[in-house]
Amino acid sequence: MEYTIRPAREEDMPAVHRLITELAIFEKEPNAVEVTVEKLKEDGFGPEPRFRCFVADSGMGVDGMALVYPRYSTWKGPALHLEDLIVTEPARGSGLGSALLTEVIRHARDTGAKRVSWEVLDWNEPAIRFYKSRGARILRDWDVVQLDERGIDHYLQHYAGL
């Protein structure tokens, strides 16, 4: 099947949401997706878009996506964060992942990013092999640090006096 890699449009957000949900199930977090199609539309296509998304479109539907947003490295300058690169299970091995990653790397270069970064689960060996085969470094000595919405509220209540 032939695919076109293109910038996502607002009307692609139901398919993007479906892919996000598929990824959550694959990563053993089936109930973790809180974002809605409406929120994706608002955040990606509002007056100040928070992300950019690329999709793999067969003409019959969207079978892959890559969602990115700008970051800033105090050491390097402008950077790009790849939040998710998702290819639906039946389309894996077709080259879609490579095509989507290529589009992300082109976008990074075209926007002046000095680095592209993303996370991969340590048990996702196929993804790790894929990224390594494309020249990515897996930084095993770094841990991801997060505060979720509840953690943000707890922090502000207990450490900032709010």
Describe this structure in words.
The protein has 162 residues and is an alpha+beta fold. The chain has a single domain, classed as 3-Layer(aba) Sandwich (Aminopeptidase), CATH 3.40.630.30. It has 5 helices and 5 strands, in the order βααβββαβαα. A 5-stranded mixed sheet has the order 1-2-3-4-5. A hairpin with a 4-residue loop joins strand 2 and strand 3. Helix 1 packs across helix 2. The longest helix has 15 residues. The radius of gyration is 17 Å and the shape is globular. The mean pLDDT is 95.
Based on the model shown, name its key terms.
single chain, 162 residues, alpha+beta, Aminopeptidase, five-stranded mixed β-sheet, 5 helices, globular
Please render the helix and strand layout as text:
Layout lengths: L3 E4 L5 H14 L10 H9 L6 E6 L4 E12 L3 E11 L8 H15 L4 E3 L7 H9 L15 H11 L3
Parallel strand pairs: 4-5
Antiparallel strand pairs: 1-2, 2-3, 3-4
Shape: globular
Which stretches are poorly predicted, pLDDT < 50 over at least 5 residues?
none
Distance between the termini: 55 Å
Q: Portion of residues in helices? A: 25-40%
CATH topology: Aminopeptidase
* CATH-level-2 architecture: 3-Layer(aba) Sandwich
Number of domains: 1
Number of helices: 5
What structural category arises from helix and sheet content? alpha+beta
Average pLDDT number: 95
Give the C-level CATH assignment: Alpha Beta
Instruction: Specify the oligomeric state.
Output: single chain
CATH superfamily: Gcn5-related N-acetyltransferase (GNAT)
Radius of gyration: 17 Å
Strand order of the largest sheet: 1-2-3-4-5
